[in-house]
């Protein structure tokens, strides 16, 4: 079995067009969480490589920014076509490298295809406003211009989709892209670059270096973050990383889109459709083995429905299938590594110490000892304290009782992160309160849907310690362009704004 995953990886990489030189003989080991085995050894890029990549991206940007946006959209259309052709192989590689079950690995690639489609349409819709001028014979308007080199830093758990959310928009907006993927998932990044290069070759006359990938750890990310030639850093990962990256970019007056950790919660109200809530909670909390930024981590259940819902949830936790995502129909795959498993155990210990009753959470033996599978844990907590206040990137759901919705919303908002949230209710007043100004303080607030599984059409991101960035749909593209206000005087006079008079002889 262990040999077969390495062999499968090589076979997929070959089919995806990645040269074996790129993933053999290097010093950066890539492990598959499915078995914990090493599947490749890559050559990390150096600080000098990073400097050169930024310089060539800058040169590519200077040519690309003058290409008409709909023509730029053609490149992204071709990227979407290449992704469609490579979907099965890339989806499988995501499963190998990030441990996702097949439907989630494929779903991630589908998300890449969807954002390409979105960006192609967008390439004809980079609209500015025309604004009424207060001066006669004047016209005011807004123009959106390309920004420059966009540095993308991404996390292990969405190893390819996050790049596409950024790159598809950045490219139609006229920018170049330099991508630093997670050091835990470099292979899917190499494969994505090979797919992009095919689209580029078909496009024909795009400048070299328009989108590049740099393999390596935080040091490469730091070099990107420090560069004055990278006006925008889009960084996805932990709040810990964002606390370092955000101030460094701000120090040089760069722009950042920060997509950081979540501590997402749901509220189950007395009128909730409990069957629907059960399924949504199960997927939101256990899906992707709790390793989504939008994973449901806290649940407030009204005391009138607690006994009707929570025992059913505990049963689902006890019976959910856990296994090798490549060879079984399991719904829950592995944690990314031993550190993630240890963090889960530490959080469960802390929860017990704070009076919690833990259901599940134990290690499950699947394959060799080097793989870390765990039964998702549901923890009944007397109150929101200790580990409940933090994101532990593992499948732990803390469940608490509530009796008053205003108090549940207060507790819901009383954590550092502000990414995703949901309420289960059939009561219009409760639903509207939750999505109102006095409701959830998160970037995403759902009604009768779980916290995870967002569509690309909406702007994605969160508030507070989640970083405030927005990516993907809606008008998130504006973050990748610079806005210019133009005032055109077509009169023969020079009236000044606000009636100011400044007549010189
Ligand atoms: P991580 O913070 O450990 O690493 C993320 C990326 O940041 C990696 O590429 C890493 O090399 C880089 N990095 C780390 N330190 C850096 C530094 N000082 N300078 C520059 N780059 C640096 O996160 P992870 O473990 O890969 O991913 C899990 C975390 O990401 C969770 O907290 C999860 O909630 C979050 N996440 C958020 C979103 C979102 O959209 N909000 C999406 C996916 C994951």
Count of extended strands: 23
Under CATH, the homologous superfamily of the largest domain reads Aldehyde Dehydrogenase, Chain A, domain 1
Number of domains: 2
Q: What is the strand content?
A: 15-25%
CA-atom Rg in angstroms:
24 Å
Helical content band: 25-40%
Distance between the termini: 89 Å
Q: Spans with pLDDT under 50 lasting ≥5 residues?
A: none
EC number: 1.2.1.3
Keywords: NAD, Oxidoreductase
Family: Belongs to the aldehyde dehydrogenase family.
InterPro entries: Ald_DH/histidinol_DH (IPR016161), Ald_DH_C (IPR016163), Ald_DH_CS_GLU (IPR029510), Ald_DH_N (IPR016162), Aldehyde_DH_dom (IPR015590), ALDH7A1-like (IPR044638)
């Amino acid at each position: 079995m262990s040999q077969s995953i390495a062999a499968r990886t090589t076979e997929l990489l070959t089919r995806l067009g990645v040269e074996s030189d790129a993933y053999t003989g290097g010093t950066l080991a890539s492990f598959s969480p499915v078995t914990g085995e090493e599947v490749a050894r890559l050559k990390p890029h150096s600080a000098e490589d990073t400097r050169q990549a930024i310089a060539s991206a800058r040169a590519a940007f200077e040519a690309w920014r003058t290409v008409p946006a709909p023509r730029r959209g053609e490149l992204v259309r071709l990227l979407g076509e290449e992704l469609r052709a490579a979907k099965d192989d890339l989806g499988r590689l995501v499963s190998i490298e990030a441990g996702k079950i097949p439907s989630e690995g494929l779903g991630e690639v589908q998300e890449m295809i969807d954002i390409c489609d979105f960006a192609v349409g967008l390439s004809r819709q980079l609209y500015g406003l025309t604004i009424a001028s207060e001066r006669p014979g004047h016209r005011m308007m807004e123009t959106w211009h390309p920004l420059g080199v966009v540095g993308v830093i991404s996390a292990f758990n969405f190893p390819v989709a996050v790049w596409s959310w950024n790159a598809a928009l950045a490219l139609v907006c006229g920018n170049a892209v330099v991508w630093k993927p997670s050091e835990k998932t470099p292979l899917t990044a190499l494969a994505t670059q090979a797919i992009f290069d095919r689209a580029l070759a078909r496009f024909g006359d795009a400048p070299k270096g328009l989108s590049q990938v740099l393999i390596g750890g935080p040091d490469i990310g730091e070099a990107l973050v420090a560069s004055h030639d990278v006006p925008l850093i889009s960084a996805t990962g932990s709040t810990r990383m964002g606390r370092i990256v955000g101030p460094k970019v701000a120090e040089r007056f760069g722009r950042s889109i920060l997509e950081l950790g979540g501590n997402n919660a749901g509220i189950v109200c007395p009128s909730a459709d409990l069957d629907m809530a059960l399924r949504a909670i199960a997927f939101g909390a256990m899906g992707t083995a709790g390793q989504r930024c939008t994973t449901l981590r806290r649940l407030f259940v009204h005391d009138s429905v607690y006994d009707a819902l929570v025992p059913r949830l505990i049963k689902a936790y006890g019976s959910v299938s856990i296994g090798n995502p490549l060879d079984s129909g399991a719904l829950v795959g592995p944690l990314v590594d031993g550190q993630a498993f240890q963090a889960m155990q530490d959080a469960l210990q802390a929860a017990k110490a704070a009076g919690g009753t833990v259901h599940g959470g134990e290690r499950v033996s699947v394959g060799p000892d080097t793989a870390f599978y765990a039964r998702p844990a549901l923890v009944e907590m007397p109150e929101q304290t200790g580990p409940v206040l933090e994101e532990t990137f593992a499948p732990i759901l803390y469940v608490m009782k509530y009796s008053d919705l205003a108090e549940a919303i207060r507790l819901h908002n009383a954590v550092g992160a502000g990414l995703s949230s949901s309420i289960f209710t059939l009561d219009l007043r409760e639903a509207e309160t939750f999505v109102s100004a006095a409701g959830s303080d998160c970037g995403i607030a759902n009604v009768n849907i779980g916290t995870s599984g967002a569509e690309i059409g909406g702007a994605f991101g969160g508030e507070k310690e989640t970083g405030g960035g927005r990516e993907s749909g809606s008008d998130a593209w504006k973050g990748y362009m610079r806005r210019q206000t133009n005032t055109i005087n077509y009169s023969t006079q020079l009236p000044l704004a606000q009636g100011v008079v400044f007549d010189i002889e």
